[in-house]
């Protein structure tokens, strides 16, 4: 009898995958967004995806997305990514970046997901 293994690899995803938590929406089961208050957020694994989609609900000042590569061991602004300065949905290419974090000078509320396509 053949057995099938359920793979848990960090491969392609059909739709954006929430990177803030294991829940489908938000950072908890009730769908609460990530809130950054004049600081740098925690780091979130991108699982080797290609695009980061950020849904900005509220913001006080513009903010940036920083990336981390295990190969260099350092955080840096993602070149070519926009300075996010309005509510709405933003897409950032993160090909080859292992982790991301959000750097803001004010109160920001957002959702974030990664996808291959």
Walkthrough of the structure:
With 117 residues, the chain is mainly beta. It is built from no helices and nine strands. Strands 1, 2, 4, 7 and 9 form a five-stranded antiparallel sheet that branches. Strands 3-8-5-6 form a four-stranded antiparallel sheet, with no helix packed on it. A hairpin with a 4-residue loop joins β5 (63-69) and β6 (74-77).
What is this entry, summarized?
Helix content is 0%, strand content 42%. The chain is an all-beta fold and 117 residues long.
Highlighted features:
117 residues; mainly beta; Jelly Rolls; five-stranded antiparallel β-sheet; four-stranded antiparallel β-sheet; 9 strands; globular
- What gross morphology would you assign? globular
Count of spatially separate domains: 1
CATH homologous superfamily designation: Galactose-binding domain-like
What structural class do the secondary elements suggest?
Answer: mainly beta
Number of helices: 0
- In the CATH scheme, the class would be Mainly Beta
Indicate the radius of gyration in whole angstroms. Answer: 15 Å
Q: What does the main sheet amount to?
A: 5 strands, antiparallel
Low-confidence stretches are none
Beta-strand portion reads 35-45%
Fraction of helical residues: under 10%
Do you know the CATH architecture? Sandwich
- The helix-strand sequence is EEEEEEEEE
Alpha carbon gap, first and last residue: 36 Å
- Find the CATH topology: Jelly Rolls
Number of strands: 9
Topology:
Elements: E1 17-18, E2 34-37, E3 44-45, E4 51-59, E5 63-69, E6 74-77, E7 88-93, E8 99-104, E9 107-115
Antiparallel strand pairs: 1-9, 2-9, 3-8, 4-7, 4-9, 5-6, 5-8
